[in-house]
């Protein structure tokens, strides 16, 4: 005899219990799936965002602060590394380019970053999607997500954030910033990082607008290196492109001095990943514990439900159904409910991770793409196998109950 007609009829008759069972199992699994998938997306997205920064040089201080400020453009008050270090980095053997990074101004919330054309084009790896890179003072190249057209003119606003909802609706500048204008001459291709929202300008303009020497002799109008040591102010960070892996490690050691620090962003990220991994492991453990409790509660509810329907199974036995048929009917019903909850939980967990990634992307600036990996599949498979195993309990109870006791309602 085919047990599925009985199973489906029973599920239709007890659809509310079936729906609640599926939802409880789904929510328990979705929690674990969302935590694991989102943590992986955050780790991969933050690592991709650091790809443009092989080696960072800054003043002695917090490595995490240096990475957050430079790689992710998070507003941080960090000490400046002196101009002598910039010249030393520019001339050091094994350096492809050494580009200063200076920030502190914005245009309607878009960070204005002073740097060189070498960094703007990532050492020649990038080609502007529109126009060209800046070639003179007063020019700017913008990230892919900056809402400006080629040829637009802007003035910087002091600070890295700007409130667009001022009461008078006007931009507020001090006199020096209001006198400075940048003309957009190009747009860079999308990098899926916070730098897509940045406005890149010659660092000489950033120095000048803050009343600092511009790194060149008074009659020298060129931008970028070589620098005049006597007129070179400090900078928040220097990003270095080494010519080889060996050169990278040599340069890191060279600039770890009393006056400067050098690091690979991956070093700092690895420490953060360890912390994230510990939190993820704890959350995953809690999710597994929750799943176990939910499965136990579901099985208890189903067990009580089957006890209430013991007369139904006794009638099946009385009209010729075998013990094995009754066992299969009960086991299939329980396994189907847990299996359906597991599949729904997988979808809900992935959807929650995707929604959370979009929310975090708007705040971190780098793209995060959740994916399903081996850990999620193991979590799903473990729940399904546990459900299939524990489904034996109510099935075995129905299997061994005498027909007479069931017909008598005992």
Biggest sheet details? 11 strands, mixed
Determine Rg (CA atoms, Å): 32 Å
How many domains would you count in the coordinates? 2
Structural class: alpha+beta
Q: Report the principal-axis shape.
A: elongated
Intertermini distance:
26 Å
Number of strands: 11
Provide an overview of this structure.
There is one protein chain. The protein is an alpha+beta fold. It starts with a helix and ends with a helix. It folds into 2 domains: 4-47 and 271-407, no CATH class; 55-263, no CATH class. Strands 1, 2, 3, 4, 5, 6, 7, 8, 9, 10 and 11 form an 11-stranded mixed β-sheet that branches. The protein is 52% helix and 13% strand. It is elongated. α2 runs antiparallel to α9 and α11 (323-364) runs antiparallel to α13. It has helices spanning 4-13, 15-49, 63-70, 83-91, 117-120, 175-179, 203-209, 245-254, 265-308, 310-318, 323-364, 374-390, 392-400, 403-407, and strands spanning 55-58, 95-107, 110-115, 130-131, 139-142, 153-154, 157-158, 182-187, 199-202, 237-242, 261-263.
How does the SSE layout of this entry go?
Elements: H1 4-13, H2 15-49, E1 55-58, H3 63-70, H4 83-91, E2 95-107, E3 110-115, H5 117-120, E4 130-131, E5 139-142, E6 153-154, E7 157-158, H6 175-179, E8 182-187, E9 199-202, H7 203-209, E10 237-242, H8 245-254, E11 261-263, H9 265-308, H10 310-318, H11 323-364, H12 374-390, H13 392-400, H14 403-407
Parallel strand pairs: 3-9, 5-8
Antiparallel strand pairs: 1-10, 1-11, 2-3, 2-7, 2-10, 4-8, 5-9, 6-8
């Amino acid at each position: 005899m085919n047990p599925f007609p009985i199973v489906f009829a029973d599920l239709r008759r007890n659809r509310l219990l079936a729906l609640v069972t599926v939802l409880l199992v789904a929510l328990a699994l979705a929690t674990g799936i969302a935590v694991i998938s989102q943590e992986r997306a955050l780790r991969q997205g933050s690592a991709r965002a650091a790809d443009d920064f092989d080696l960072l040089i800054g003043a002695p201080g917090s490595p995490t602060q240096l990475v957050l400020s430079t790689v992710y453009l998070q507003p941080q008050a960090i000490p400046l590394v002196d101009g002598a270090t910039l010249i030393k980095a520019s001339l050091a053997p094994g350096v492809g380019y050494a580009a200063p990074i200076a920030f502190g101004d914005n245009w309607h919330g878009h960070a204005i970053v002073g740097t060189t054309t070498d960094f703007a084009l990532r050492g020649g790896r990038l080609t502007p999607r529109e126009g060209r890179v800046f070639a003179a003072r007063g020019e700017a190249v913008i990230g892919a997500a900056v809402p400006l057209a080629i040829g637009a003119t802007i003035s910087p606003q002091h600070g890295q954030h700007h409130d667009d909802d001022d009461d008078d609706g006007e931009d507020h500048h001090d006199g020096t910033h209001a006198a400075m204008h940048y003309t957009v001459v190009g747009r860079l291709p999308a990098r899926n990082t916070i730098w897509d929202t940045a406005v890149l300008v010659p660092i000489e303009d950033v120095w000048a607008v803050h009343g600092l020497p511009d790194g060149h002799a008074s009659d020298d109008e060129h931008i970028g290196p070589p620098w005049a040591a006597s007129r070179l102010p400090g900078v928040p960070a220097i990003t270095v492109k080494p010519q080889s892996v060996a050169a990278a490690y040599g340069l890191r050691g060279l600039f770890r001095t009393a006056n400067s620090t050098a690091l690979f962003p991956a070093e700092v990220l690895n420490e953060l990943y360890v912390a994230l991994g510990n939190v993820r492991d704890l959350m995953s453990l809690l999710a597994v514990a929750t799943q176990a409790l939910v499965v136990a509660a579901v099985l208890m509810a189903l067990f009580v439900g089957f006890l209430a329907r013991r007369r139904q199974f006794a009638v099946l036995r009385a009209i010729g159904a075998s013990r094995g048929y009754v066992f299969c009917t009960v086991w299939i019903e329980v396994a189907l409910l847990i299996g359906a909850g597991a599949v729904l939980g997988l979808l809900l967990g992935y959807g929650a991770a995707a929604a959370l990634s979009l929310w975090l992307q708007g705040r971190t600036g780098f793209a995060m793409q959740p994916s399903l990996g081996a850990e999620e599949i193991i979590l799903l498979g473990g729940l399904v196998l546990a459900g299939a195993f524990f489904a034996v309990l109510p099935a075995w109870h129905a299997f061994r109950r005498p027909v007479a006791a069931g017909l008598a309602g005992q």
